[in-house]
Write a structure and sequence with these properties.
- By secondary structure, the chain is an alpha/beta fold.
- The protein folds into three domains: 160 residues, GAF domain (Beta-Lactamase, 2-Layer Sandwich), CATH 3.30.450.40; 174 residues, 3-Layer(aba) Sandwich (Rossmann fold), CATH 3.40.50.300; 148 residues, Helicase, Ruva Protein, domain 3.
- 42% of the residues lie in helices and 14% in strands.
- The protein has 19 helices and 13 strands.
- The strands form three sheets. Strands 3-2-1-6-5-4 form a six-stranded antiparallel beta sheet. Strands 8-9-12-7-13 form a five-stranded parallel beta sheet.
- Helix 11 packs across helix 13.
- The longest helix is centred in the N-terminal third of the chain and has 38 residues.
- The protein starts with a helix and ends in an 11-residue tail after the last helix.
Length: 515
């Protein structure tokens, strides 16, 4: 005869041995098989939003499909579960009961017996723990009574495990943010903004005016002009500088994921959402969020963003309660938002909210006087990064070649040209002056010609763009994306470049090799 008090005490010690429910399941499997027939333990809970059972742990002495994490249920599942009034049920033939049958068919074991313990915490149904053994009619009321004794310890253990894993997931996310922010702080706080006293003097004056405030800022300018650097300076010059600076490129995230990335999601909000995840706004609490390419946001997300800017609150995907956030918004775009508003693809009310303090960052062609300082800065920093023994000097005429070019890819393109030249020099003669001999700007042959030169052919903008893209493709060996690809050299998103190439009739990929 079982000493129930000793059984309860020994089992509870094992149930409380860890916050990891998988470890608890293994401890209980090892102990309980001395009292009941037992081949394994499965811990799960029913997620009403996704209408599926989420598997938390599987510990088995027989082969099972342990890769399963979610098991979809039929529409009647919530009603069937609501009818359960007892703490423990015996299923000596799982084929007779729909929910256990679906679960075990998915896990790969049909002919079995189960003792199903339903856990509850603070009056709410929490989940279930399935003690199983091969064969039918293996369990008795005496076995069920022993498991029922452990309802409270198992319920507390399961609740603690769920909360623990939520905390661990959130901690991991914030730890990643902290590591990234420390790197950025070291890089950004003391970063010299080249042109601050030259072509960017007006921009820096605007930054000094708006940085101390909580006002939303809209950074406008072509791709590659340095909008992120200006956003960095605003944040690290603000009272929020000790808080997080969270960046997100709105155009680089698939439409189906952007909601979850920005606002987070609850556990079970969609397939694969096995735990609660805070979004970028929550992770930017007491700090700043930088929404790059905000003009690419889909309409549904614009509505939610408007709520954040207006009401200072978000709602996670799958959530029902608003969450207050204290976050400053800096948005950026290379697109004409006013024109997008007229076209109906960007909300006018959101534009008004973001456009409180716009800052236009001029393209590099409008501040060419800053190019020499930029080139020398890039040479020094990249030479150090590449571990070059000496910092190369510029060859005669090299700077003039760079100054003669209009830089449609702006600062990013200039930086890429310098880096590529240094990489190539690394494998040749380091004592040779840097002449950018591989750089052949399409405007070079016309540099210095008077505008009234009757022999000059004026290209259309599309033709000039087509030629430039083709030239960069040649430099990149025909590659659009990846390190050293045309998109990187031009400072644009690969999908944006492919779209432009289609419009201009420039073949790429398989199409570029057709007869």
């Amino acid at each position: 005869m079982v000493d129930e008090r000793d059984f309860f005490n020994q089992a509870t010690l094992r149930i409380c041995s860890s916050l990891d429910i998988g470890e608890v399941a293994q401890e209980c499997l090892d102990y309980l098989k001395g009292y009941i027939p037992l081949d394994g333990v499965v811990v799960s809970y029913f997620d009403e939003k996704s209408r599926s059972f989420v598997i938390m742990a599987v510990k088995s002495e027989i082969p099972l499909n342990e890769e399963v994490t979610n098991i979809p249920m039929p529409p009647e599942a919530p009603e069937l579960l609501s009818r359960v009034k007892t703490s423990v049920r015996i299923f000596n033939d799982t084929e007779e009961y729909l929910i256990p049958f679906i679960i075990w068919r998915t896990l790969g074991l049909i002919e079995k017996s189960s003792l199903l313990l339903f856990t509850r915490f603070k009056g709410q149904r929490l989940g279930q723990i399935d003690f199983f053994v091969r064969g039918r009619n293996r369990y008795t009321e005496e076995h069920a009574h022993l498991i029922e004794l452990l309802e409270k310890p198992f319920s507390i253990a399961m609740a603690n495990s769920l909360q623990y894993h939520d905390i661990v997931n959130i901690k991991d996310l914030f730890s990643q943010d902290i590591r990234r922010l420390r790197r950025e702080l070291n890089q950004s706080a003391d970063t010299e903004i080249i042109g601050a006293n030259g072509g960017l003097s007006g921009v820096m004056e605007a930054v000094s005016q708006v940085a101390p405030l909580n006002t939303p800022v809209l950074l406008l300018g072509e791709t590659g002009v340095g909008k992120e650097i200006i956003a960095n300076r605003i944040h690290y010059s603000s009272p929020r500088s000790e808080g997080p600076f969270v960046k997100i490129n709105c155009g680089a995230i698939p439409e189906g994921l952007i909601d979850s990335e920005l606002f987070g999601h609850e556990k079970g909000a969609f397939t694969g959402a096995v735990s609660r995840k805070p979004g970028r706004f929550e992770r930017a609490q007491k700090g700043t969020i930088f929404l790059d390419e905000v003009g690419d946001l889909p309409a549904s997300v614009q509505v939610r963003l408007l709520r954040v800017v207006q009401e200072k609150e978000i709602e996670r995907v799958g959530g029902t309660s608003p969450i207050k956030v204290d976050v400053r918004v800096i948005a950026a775009t290379h697109r004409d938002l006013e024109e997008l508003v007229k076209e109906g693809s960007f909300r006018e009310d959101l534009w008004f909210r973001l456009n409180v303090f716009p800052i236009h960052i001029p393209p590099l062609r409008e501040r060419k006087a800053d190019i020499p300082q930029m080139v020398h800065y890039f040479i020094k920093s990249k030479a150090r990064e590449l571990n070059l023994r000496v910092v190369p000097e510029l060859a005669p005429g090299a700077m003039e070649r760079l100054m003669a070019y209009d830089w449609p890819g702006n600062v990013r393109e200039l930086q890429n040209i310098v880096e590529r030249s240094l990489i190539r020099m690394r494998f040749t003669d380091l004592s040779r002056p840097l002449d950018f001999e591989e750089f052949h700007p399409h405007s070079e042959s016309q540099a210095g010609r008077p505008a009234t030169d009757p022999g000059r052919t004026v290209l259309t903008l599309d033709e000039a763009t087509r030629r430039h893209i083709q030239e960069v493709l040649g430099i990149a060996g025909g590659r659009v994306k990846g390190k050293g690809g045309a998109a990187e050299l031009l400072g644009v998103n690969p999908s944006t470049l492919r779209h432009r190439m289609r419009v201009l009739g420039i073949p790429y990929g398989r199409g570029s090799r057709r007869g």
